[in-house]
DNA sequence: TCTTGACCTTACCATGATGGGAAGGTCTAT
DNA sequence: ATAGACCTTCCCATCATGGTAAGGTCAAGA
């Protein structure tokens, strides 16, 4: 199987497959006489694993650890669960942060007439004009 | 005022002030004879505006537009509100995406014994092992 | 006056994960 | 034989930020 087919079957672009190889996340595959990379079902399986982990928001670094644990027959599931749990915490922190932004912005948008007049509480807030300070006044 | 003081007063690092100048987000300040950048209250005000916009998750590009609108006395507030509104949509999309990840991961973590045994539904899911496919079975 | 330390300057490199493109080699089907 | 679809490596760009290095400047104190 060439890299293009491996890409199609795994959902990881050829570009990224080469990158993952370069950074050592996956091991270099064998090559044909003409230097083409050759992949088999096992390699594609690994690529799918990576794809799934990335889709779940794990960094490449975390994915690398998970991959190691996956290939370690003797690992404790607790180890994996800890990684997943901290990842959840990180995601939730990020979510809370974004929600804070949405909250502030929604408030500002709600206060903005949104017509042809130049008065705009959103800009006033960004500028730090005291009139409409995010979450206190009002 | 030197760049360090402007940085302290605006919350934007000196490094970033120079960067914003370089990419044209802010205009080059005047210089002392010894080539030091000189800032006044107006420049700091602009920097604070930028800081606030970035904190609210606007990209530098969007911030640039908002800055232009801020400085345009005749702009319609509707224009600003539209930018803010689309930004809210983008944030909410991102939030939903992260929440999807959390949901899937929470489910997996919940299914994982987390002990010394190697059996791990989290890894099974990543590997695409049919037993525990995220959101369908169970 | 000299020194020290805190500031400033520019220039370059790194991050993380991805995409784009160029220049050239290979394979397959017509 | 040729066209077109693949592959190879190498370099560059993104986005916003931080770091570092080599050198200039300034203010305060001995």
TrEMBL record, chains A, B:
GO terms for cellular component: cytoplasm. InterPro entries: CueR (IPR011789), DNA-bd_dom_put_sf (IPR009061), MerR-type_HTH_dom (IPR000551), MerR_fam (IPR047057), Tscrpt_reg_MerR_DNA-bd (IPR015358). Keywords: Cytoplasm, DNA-binding, Transcription, Transcription regulation. SMART domains: HTH_MERR (SM00422). Residues 1-69 form the HTH merR-type domain. GO terms for biological process: positive regulation of DNA-templated transcription. CDD domains: HTH_CueR (cd01108). This is Cu(I)-responsive transcriptional regulator. It comes from Devosia subaequoris.
């Amino acid at each position: 199987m060439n890299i293009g087919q491996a890409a199609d079957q795994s959902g990881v672009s050829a570009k990224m497959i080469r990158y993952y190889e370069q950074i050592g996340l996956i091991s270099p595959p064998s090559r044909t006489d003409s230097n083409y990379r050759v992949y088999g079902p096992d390699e594609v399986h690994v690529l799918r694993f990576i794809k799934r982990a990335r889709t779940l928001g794990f960094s490449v670094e975390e994915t690398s650890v998970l991959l190691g644990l996956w290939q370690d027959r003797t690992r404790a599931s607790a180890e994996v669960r800890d990684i997943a749990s901290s990842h959840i915490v990180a995601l939730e922190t990020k979510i809370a942060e974004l929600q804070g932004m949405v909250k502030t912005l929604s408030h500002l948008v709600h206060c903005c007439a949104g017509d042809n007049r130049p008065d705009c509480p959103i800009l006033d807030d960004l500028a730090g004009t005291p009139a409409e300070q995010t979450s206190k006044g009002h």
